[in-house]
C-alpha cells in the first residue's frame, strides 16, 4: 500500500488526534487509545476537554461514558450541550473531542449550532486541540462524502470542518469499497484500532499501522 500524506498551507500548527473508532466488541471505551490520548493531551498542556456528543441522541449518557473513560487519565470533561452558548464554549475551550455515532446527524447539528466555522478557525490557528473518533474523525475532513453511515438526516451541505486536506473512511474493511474510492480520489483508510496524529509528518499508531491508499493503488 502506497501512503500519501497531504497538508494545507494554512494550519501547520494544528494539533489533531484522529481515532478510527472508540469501542470494539470485547474492549472498554477508548481502551486502545488511552496511552496516546494521555500523552497527546499532556504534551499540549490540556486540563479540560469539551466533549461534543452530537453524533448520538442521548447527550448526557454519552458524555458520562466519555467522562468515565477520560477523567481517570487526569482530564476533566464537560459536555457542550450543558453550555448556554455552544459557540462561546468552543471559543473558550482548550480541547474539543467530537465523538462517534452517525456522521450525518453530527454534521447537521454542528451546522445548526453554527459551530463549523468557529471550530475550523481555532483549530487551524493552533489554538484548539482536536480529538475525533469515528464520525468525529470523518467531519475533520473536507467532506463526509466517504462516510459509511446511513443518511438518517441531511445536513445543509456535506462540506465538513476541513481540518485535514484529504478524505477519510474510518473502520473500512470492505476491499471493493476501498477500490471504488481510490480509483477516483486520494483517501485515508483508517482501520479499527488505528489513530492518526496530525503533525509533520503524520503518524499512524496502533496494532495496525496502515493509514492510507493512493489513487488506484491498494
From TrEMBL:
GO biological process assignments: proteolysis
GO MF annotation terms: serine-type peptidase activity
Keyword entries, A-Z: Hydrolase, Protease, Serine protease
Listed transmembrane segments: none
Family, as annotated: Belongs to the peptidase S51 family.
Name of the protein in question: Dipeptidase E
Organism per entry: Varroa destructor
Amino acid at each position: 500500500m502506497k501512503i500519501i500524506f497531504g497538508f494545507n498551507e494554512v494550519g501547520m500548527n494544528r494539533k489533531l488526534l484522529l481515532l478510527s473508532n472508540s469501542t470494539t466488541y470485547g474492549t472498554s471505551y477508548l481502551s486502545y487509545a488511552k496511552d496516546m490520548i494521555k500523552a497527546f493531551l499532556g504534551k499540549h498542556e490540556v486540563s479540560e476537554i469539551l466533549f461534543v456528543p452530537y453524533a448520538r441522541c442521548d447527550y448526557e449518557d454519552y458524555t458520562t461514558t466519555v467522562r468515565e473513560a477520560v477523567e481517570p487519565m487526569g482530564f476533566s470533561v464537560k459536555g457542550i450541550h450543558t453550555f448556554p452558548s455552544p459557540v462561546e464554549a468552543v471559543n473558550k475551550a482548550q480541547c474539543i473531542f467530537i465523538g462517534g455515532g452517525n456522521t450525518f446527524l453530527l454534521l447537521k447539528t454542528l451546522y445548526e449550532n453554527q459551530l463549523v466555522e468557529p471550530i475550523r478557525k481555532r483549530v487551524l490557528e493552533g489554538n484548539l486541540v482536536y480529538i475525533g473518533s469515528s464520525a468525529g474523525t470523518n467531519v475533520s475532513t473536507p467532506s463526509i462524502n466517504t462516510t459509511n453511515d446511513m443518511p438518517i438526516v441531511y445536513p445543509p451541505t456535506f462540506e465538513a470542518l476541513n481540518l485535514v486536506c484529504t478524505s477519510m473512511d474510518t473502520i473500512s474493511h470492505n476491499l471493493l469499497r476501498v477500490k471504488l474510492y481510490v480509483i477516483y480520489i486520494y483517501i485515508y483508510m483508517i482501520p479499527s484500532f488505528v489513530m492518526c496524529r496530525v503533525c509533520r509528518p503524520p503518524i499512524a499508531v496502533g496494532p495496525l499501522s496502515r493509514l492510507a491508499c493512493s489513487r488506484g493503488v491498494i
